[in-house]
Amino acid sequence: MSESLHPGWQPADEDLRRFRDSQRLAYRCAETIAAELTPGITEREVARRMREVLDAEGAEDCLHEPFAWFGDRTAFRGLIAVSQLRGFNPAFFPGSRRLEEGMPFILDCAPTVHGYTADIGYSGVLGENRILDRLMDDLLEYRVLILDRVRRRETLAEISRAVDRLCTRHGYEPRHKAYPFEVLAHRVERISDDGKAKSSHPSLARFGLRNVAELARDAIRGRKEGWSPLWNSSARSEHPPTSGLWAVEPHLGFRSVGAKFEELLVVTETDAYWLDDDVPHVRRWIARGLWPAKANKESGEVTKVAA
Amino acid sequence: MSTSTFVQSGNVQLAVRSWGDPTKPTILLVHGYPDSSHVWDATAGRLAEDFHVVAYDVRGAGASSAPHPVEDYDLEHLVNDAAAVIEAAAPHKMVHLVGHDWGSIQAWEMVTTERLKNRIASYTTISGPSLDHAGYWILQRLKSGAPADVAKIANQVLHSWYIGMFHLPMAAPLMWKMGLDKLWPTILEKVEGIDKADVNPTQKSDGRTGVNLYRANVLKRVLKPHERRTDIPVQLVVPLRDHFVSPELFDDLPKWAPRLWRTDVDAGHWLQVSDPDLVAVKIADFVRFVDSGVETPALRRARVRGPRRKHSGKLVVVTGAGSGIGRETLLAFAEAGADTVAVDIDLAAAQRTAELARLLDADSVAYRVDVGDAKAMETLAEQIDATLGAPDVVVNNAGIGMSGPMLDTSTADWEKILRVNLWGVIHGSKLFAQQMLDAGKKGHIVNVSSGLAFLPTRLTPAYNTTKAAVQMLSECLRAELAGQGIGVSAIYPGIVHTNITESARIIGGDDEVAKRRRQANRLYALRNLKPTAVAAAILDAVEHNRAEARVGAEVHAIRWLSRLAPGLARRVAQINV
């Protein structure tokens, strides 16, 4: 089976449909919980609620258990910013921070359904926050830039550096650099649908080991073949996009507010596209009149397409 | 010239002096302790041209009579005195009230009680809180019990040591009797830095009798405060180096006076003596605003809206604000409450910075200016002056990088780097320092030099030369402006990770240039010193008027190397990497 998962893997339409179902479940979970949020609730309670929703909807495994970050933790300020140990930092785990009015939050979950794993990030705020609005609006440019450059078959490292430069131009911190291995994105593989319940699937420190094992297998093979399942600005990512599915997660920070989206990008031998355009951040851009947008061929600058 | 007269208030005769045309708006000046109305002379003289100015000796001071019983100094009597003066000097008119120290304490009583309702159009208060507000301020912080709040109380108590002493029988009057009055001008000079004070002929009796003000009122009010509010427009001027009143005491003022304008000034307690120009401008602008509705840009910034931040009410101009150190500095000031002007050769980048600053709840505008262009800089200064008023802080940060041997550096290259790195700083320093002086305000000029100002290198001769020039320029300017309330700081950043490595001009063949840029990028990324560190150093330099601020261990090392082992520094300079 792992043979079919090499970076030349072309998911069939049925595979894509199943991945899309997983991703929609993940977003449904985030939106349901986001609508429930009230002042005083803790990150830990929210993460537990997300897990309950995913379990109830039939997720049998995960890449990682749900994360929830509130307030300045969305910008990875404080302990959570410690990026030694390659970014493996216990402060990532949901804590006792309580939500307050005007506080931004990020919900992140990665359920597996019938062997198809999604990994999504959802940003929001309890009430209003002008900085978060601005960050969310600007995330559009990153979504357009990343897809545009993947289509042009630039190396993943080049694209990651272009994202860094866009952050610099915007005046934001690229906070995804605080993730393990500073990843802007990582591959997501299909795992076997063994029909077993979630409790029988092994996990370590809130990471689903079956999904992590796929990434590890990719990493070992990639090392031999000159590619990496982890997409960052380093030399290991100095190769064109490998086909398959990538969970892309640009995470921006400005002062004590952070925002991200995370969703699956499909890379084929010749093209690339977002698995699903019907996702909350895109719906938000449509509602705010920012969509559709496209990248300028020369400058890479993103402009709104006249409706 | 003033005219003098006496006004009867109960059994007390008050000495009243007035300046200017009585048909013009009336400004009533109330002095504090241990002063007489003469403390206002310089201010009154400056205001007399445009206003009808009235000042009187408070009972017990100057030429006014001094009743014996302590209770005759109760605030109620003091308000009645003011009412009598207003009735005599400005019958049927509303007056603009200005109080300093005890004059301000009394004036709070005037604007928060019924007695003078509809007679006071505006109130400018300097260094004198309402005793009731102070009482609530203390109670609230005692109740919260948070260490920071208790520390604030302790701090104010330290500022108020003399009030306790005044309550001791005999002590204070005896000191005045024994010659404190002779010492007073010296004390003012040594402690307050005021050498212009005229000798007050009634200093001894003012000091002795005025103690009654404290004895009659302080404990009564502070221990059992009443809620005192006013809808009158209030302008609060806070001298930050006041030895007697801590600025934190005014933190809750918006609660009592919702129509509030606040300006913090880097000065001591006797602001109207040390800086009469500044005080006259503040009063005049506020009075005109209240009468006509025309708010100067400075007043607009001073209007208290949200919670107070460290640089609220200030205007900060930053050049090279489109990226790197400039952008982070501007944002740090905006985060601290200042309104900002983002100047950059790249308009889109400056606009982006301004937009980010506005997200931090501060006003910001962007200008596209080439700082090396004298005409363009003059126009910028004029536009800022016309629309926003003189800035409080100017950060001359715009600069470019250049690397390559001296003998290969063309005249055009030299002209280019001198124009931005040196002429930009010259124009910015000169134009805005002059503007601050003309506006009679205390300000600060910050020039961003570089750690390489201290160290010769064969790699970057042109760059180091311009930055060393900025060092000397800043030191000279600091000396020149020291006596005029304008601070000058030079900033020496180390290897700060910005786009300077990408934008710097590197002189040499294509391969050589690419290699050098790669090397530089790697070094800068590896050192990873953030522009926010420089921004923090700049704010600190402004807040403490530091002559220089070095950012990064490498700069400290270079500085000491060049001082202690210049021979070794010259050897280092020869290294060709």
Defining key terms:
heterodimer; A: 307 residues; alpha+beta; four-stranded antiparallel beta sheet; 6 helices; 33% helix; 22% strand; B: 577 residues; alpha/beta; eight-stranded mixed beta sheet; seven-stranded parallel beta sheet; 22 helices; 49% helix; 16% strand
Describe the 3D structure.
The complex is a heterodimer of chains A (307) and B (577). In chain A, strands 9-6-10-13-14 form a five-stranded antiparallel beta sheet. In chain A, strands 1, 2, 3 and 4 form a four-stranded antiparallel beta sheet that branches. In chain A, helix 1 (13-36) crosses helix 2 (43-56) and helix 3 (130-151) runs antiparallel to helix 4 (156-170). With 307 residues, chain A is of the alpha+beta class. Chain A contains six helices and 16 strands. Chain A has helices at 13-36, 43-56, 130-151, 156-170, 209-225, 280-287; strands at residues 61-70, 104-113, 116-117, 120-125, 173-174, 185-188, 203-204, 207-208, 230-231, 244-248, 251-254, 257-260, 263-267, 272-274, 293-295, 302-304. By secondary structure, chain B is of the alpha/beta class. Chain B contains 22 helices and 17 strands. In chain B, helix 4 (131-144) runs antiparallel to helix 5, helix 7 packs across helix 8 (203-223) and helix 15 runs parallel beside helix 16. The longest helix of chain B is centred in the last third of the chain and has 28 residues, at 411-438. Chain B starts with a strand and ends with a helix. The model of chain B has no long low-confidence stretch (mean pLDDT 92). Chains A and B meet through helix 3 and helix 4 of A and helix 13 and helix 14 of B.
